[in-house]
Description:
The structure is a homodimer. Chain A is mostly helical. Chain A contains 18 helices and 2 strands. Chain A has helices at residues 3-6, 11-15, 22-33, 38-49, 55-66, 74-96, 107-110, 113-134, 137-159, 168-190, 196-223, 226-229, 235-238, 244-249, 255-266, 272-284, 287-306, 313-327; strands spanning 100-101, 104-105. The longest helix of chain A is centred in the middle third of the chain and has 28 residues, at 196-223.
Amino acid sequence: xxxxxxxxxxxxxxxAPIAARLPAVQAHLRHVVEADFKLIVDVNSHLxxxxxxxxxxxxxxxxxxxxxxxxxRAIPLAAAVELVHLATLVHDDSVDHSVLRRxxxxxxxxxxxxxxxxxxxxxxxxxxIELVRIGDMHPLHVMSRVTNDxxxxxxxxxxxxxxLKFTExxxxxxxxAKTASLIAxxxxxxxxxxEPRLRDALGRFGEALGMAFQIVxxxxxYTEDTSVTxxxxxxxxREHKMTLPLxxxxxxxxxxxxxxxxxxxxxxxxxxGQIAEVVASVTRTGGLEYARDRAQRLSLQxxxxxxxxxxxxxxxxxxASISYVVERRR
Amino acid sequence: xxxxxxxxxxxxxxxAPIAARLPAVQAHLRHVVEADFKLIVDVNSHLxxxxxxxxxxxxxxxxxxxxxxxxxRAIPLAAAVELVHLATLVHDDSVDHSVLRRxxxxxxxxxxxxxxxxxxxxxxxxxxIELVRIGDMHPLHVMSRVTNDxxxxxxxxxxxxxxLKFTExxxxxxxxAKTASLIAxxxxxxxxxxEPRLRDALGRFGEALGMAFQIVxxxxxYTEDTSVTxxxxxxxxREHKMTLPLxxxxxxxxxxxxxxxxxxxxxxxxxxGQIAEVVASVTRTGGLEYARDRAQRLSLQxxxxxxxxxxxxxxxxxxASISYVVERRR
Lengths: 330, 330
């Protein structure tokens, strides 16, 4: 077997058709968050240092290029979408009391809970200012709906700790709202100038992609360690969060295994041993396989949506983004 | 002296020209925050029970009526402005760890820190959805700027604890951003359909009114107790927050008085006695008088701005709102 056959799709393959435009998005992002207030400047520079893979701006730019000639407006739109994403991360970390994000300290741990609440609001309102400046009502419509969906997702997340009641249906509603809405929004916003048929197909593509993205995230929490993901492994179990692998595994478990889950869920600070025991049960009873299979089915669904689009390098990059999402390790 | 000469202007006088429209604003508000998710429904019903004086919606409706025939759009605009206000209160209480608001438990104390962060985001994004639905770019422009200003105000608030460095100029910037921006925004948004000359005059009116509003709030913290204001008295000193009375008083204090302030600021949980001592010094050295005088000067400035407007009952109600703000006890 040659190297190329097993190599997963890298982000650079996905970004290839729009890579030349990403620095402009980053520059625009820096410009939009600018402030003349030292504390905000400090938080911003930390946030921009911890900046991630620009996956959502990539989708905006690819959607833009997939429906016609690349537009100038896609740059500020991509920056606004990433800004909403950053705002959400800052509030999520504050809500979860997370200490690490992408291997770096979170705003709440480095500054304070107060600063993270305010800073999330700051970034979000800056994104809105930027969308207003762009002056088209459609992206404003999409992004205000998306941010609202994400708050409902965060509320649903609070209930994902009741492991006896949280079903796969609840999980689907949660990941649609929390993760898939913004990824779908990025695709829709990128295609804001396209005919509704293409825009809607891209929206559906983004929703399936976003759900697969979150399922893979939740899988990685079971399978990868800190050195790879930049956050503690087994964190969801440690925080008593129900995700798909455990939801799927529970009915297949022995009584003794289920009791171990109950004990873990009732222990405020579960030990490494407890976590390892439940991870082993979830693996043995096919929870990981089940989640991988769901991600695969969502991938196929996302791929089908792309058939609506004309054949372009941007469409092929969107197709590659599916493999990237499903095969990634972090 | 007869009763009428000393009676302060009541809110019902201010609201008289638009009182018939306020129930529609409240109904619209309930409609806009609606959710099919139980936790959100529960938080909403608590929030709507604790709902305040509808002062900002009143300003929207008065500004609307002061520049021409009352418009239909003023109702949803007023609801959106109140919603942004509610969102801000929820996050402010979370940032300050406040337990009481208008004599009722705050969202963070009744539910949790998590719920209050998410719920603030929920309300804010609902307001944005509503502004997008209204479909005019100008209110979106004003409200996204205002919400951003308020976050900068909250950041400035975090620095208001350094009592040796926090000047009256810092205080002015703080209250402009934190409080006056939304009150000015309410006036501007209400007049969104008016000629710029009137809209700008109403914006400046709102800024002066809003600054006076915050100064009076900060004064009440020195002069009124829980039974009147619905929150603990002396709270700002207890939380080591610098406000105008103390800023103005400090240079007039004796060395011993200043040392008492230093001790209070260095005590994590100051005693009632310590607080009473500093309140007495601030009173003796004219800090309260100074703040009252600033509020008065801002009132005159607000009144002058109203001269731009045609003589209408709405304009007279706006004039009455100045007295209401400056004379209120809670």
